[in-house]
Amino acid sequence: MGTKTHPIGFRLGITENWKSRWYSDKGYRENVIQDYKIRRYLKDKVKTAGIAKIEIERALNQLKIMISVVRPGMVIGRGGSGIELLKEDLLKLVGTKTDLTVEEVKDPELSAKLMAESIVVQIEKRRRLKRVMNYTAEKVMSKGAKGVKIICSGRLGGAEIARSEKVVRKSVPAQCLRAKIDFARATAHTTYGTVGAKVWIYKE
Length: 204
Fold this sequence. Notes:
Layout: H1 7-10, E1 20-21, H2 28-45, E2 51-59, E3 62-69, H3 72-76, H4 81-94, E4 98-104, H5 112-124, H6 129-142, E5 147-154, E6 163-170, E7 181-190, E8 193-202
Parallel strand pairs: 1-2, 3-4
Antiparallel strand pairs: 2-3, 5-6, 5-8, 7-8
Helix pairs in contact: 2-4, 5-6
């Protein structure tokens, strides 16, 4: 077995940027825990909006949070009421005022996180796995991706022995640092155990 490297961590500072951007001499541990709590809270609260990315920036006493979602209207709410409620909850959670911005994801098919979660939802609904994987791969390619790779592992279809299924379209250059590759994984919780889905999308 070769050593596996996380495709995004491998490219940090080259083609990928950090999801949390701040520096701290003191209180580093507290900030990391706080970031985790913010992400967990937002994922639970606005899950139905289709979260692609949550970015956090800190500067002195300022905290800026940027959420990329498929359906921004569900987060903002009528007349901005939804976003105000989120700000109030985050103030209680963090203790400082937060600047919350919501961005719309133009092409959700080119987001590995959204595609992995889509596969997981369909696995939980007991759809045919191979058909789901092929359909997702074709959907990604139709949006102009240069390549896509999908791997699902576990007790697929309730089989006694766990196995892996793989679908690849064109190429995904894993070792090329300049290649912009989006990667995500998600877990389906089924009656016969958990099934993992991994998605690599070669954008440019």
